[in-house]
């Protein structure tokens, strides 16, 4: 049985919701979010940039013929979710949202309960075999065909001690040829001075002592064995922008994103 919702403890999904201007958060979440904003005011813009990057990637993948999507570590549903973007281009697109967060699961299930082309599954990227074998996932997605796997933020909270590289590689091996992996990850190459304070806040939020922060070169390793799509792993503003002028000062918003395709053996 799930533990009762504790609104006195901050939750990283609700903190992200606050950054996006959402209302699905409580005082503890807002307090933690404002502590992060005090260190790095640009995080609000970064949240929007990540959302816009996600939309561009979904559109790109549909153009490549991908109409199945697996969103791992999904946040609280907001405007322009994966299934909405994909279906605006491919009405038959199918999407499964995955989370191990009770807050996200309850919101997602309430929103999508009557939609047969979407699913909401409890799981995480650290258990790829169990995830892809999940009956609920398989009712919606055909794992023998290409899938667009979206990992919007989950990896940035998982320390190297847990060996996330191994689990991402296992997920890659389980996917059909032609599948794509998309990762968004905060990096501190351009803002090393904010790393310590922000890591400390998230240590308290997550209740873990480990430091999960990474630089770009470390994030790049998650794509080993796959073919990076141009322009590679870049600051999210630089990934196939709708307006080239929007890439100005991209490094000020220290999220990188990349998309890679699983090639034939």
Question: How would you characterize this protein structure?
Answer:
This protein is an alpha/beta fold. It has a single domain, classed as 3-Layer(aba) Sandwich (Rossmann fold), CATH 3.40.50.150. The protein is built from ten helices and eight strands. Strands 1, 2, 3, 4, 5, 6, 7 and 8 form an eight-stranded mixed beta sheet that branches. Helix 4 links the parallel strand 1 and strand 2. The longest helix is centred in the N-terminal third of the chain and has 21 residues. The radius of gyration is 17 Å and the shape is globular. The mean pLDDT is 91.
Distinctive features:
single chain; 265 residues; alpha/beta; 8-stranded mixed beta sheet
SSE topology sketch:
Blueprint: H1 12-19, H2 27-39, H3 43-63, E1 68-72, H4 82-89, E2 94-99, H5 102-112, E3 118-122, H6 128-133, H7 135-140, E4 148-151, H8 164-174, E5 180-186, H9 192-206, H10 216-220, E6 227-228, E7 234-235, E8 255-261
Parallel strand pairs: 1-2, 1-4, 2-3, 4-5
Antiparallel strand pairs: 5-8, 6-8, 7-8
Helix pairs in contact: 1-2, 2-9, 3-4
């Amino acid at each position: 049985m799930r533990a009762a919702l504790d609104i006195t403890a901050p939750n990283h999904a609700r903190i992200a919701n606050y950054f996006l201007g959402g209302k699905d958060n409580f005082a503890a979440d807002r307090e933690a979010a404002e502590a992060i904003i005090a260190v790095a005011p640009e995080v609000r813009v970064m949240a929007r940039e990540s959302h816009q990057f996600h939309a561009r990637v979904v559109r790109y993948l549909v153009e490549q013929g991908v109409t199945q999507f697996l969103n791992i570590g999904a946040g609280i549903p907001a405007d322009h979710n994966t299934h909405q973007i994909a279906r605006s281009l491919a009405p038959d697109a199918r999407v499964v949202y995955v989370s191990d967060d009770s807050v996200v699961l309850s919101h997602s299930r309430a929103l999508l309960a009557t939609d047969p082309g979407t699913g909401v599954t409890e799981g995480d990227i650290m258990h790829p075999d169990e995830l892809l074998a999940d009956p609920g996932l398989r009712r919606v997605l055909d794992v023998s065909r290409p899938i667009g796997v979206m990992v919007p933020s989950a990896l940035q909270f998982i320390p190297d001690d847990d060996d996330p590289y191994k689990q991402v590689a296992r997920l890659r091996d389980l996917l059909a040829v032609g599948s794509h992996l998309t990762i968004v990850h905060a990096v501190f190459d351009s803002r090393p001075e904010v790393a310590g304070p922000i890591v400390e806040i998230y240590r308290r939020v997550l209740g873990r002592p480990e430091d999960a922060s990474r630089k770009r070169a470390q994030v790049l390793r998650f794509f080993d064995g796959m073919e990076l799509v141009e322009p590679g792993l870049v600051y999210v503003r630089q990934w196939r922008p709708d307006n080239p002028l929007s890439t100005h000062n991209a490094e000020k918003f220290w999220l990188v994103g990349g998309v890679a395709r699983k090639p034939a053996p």
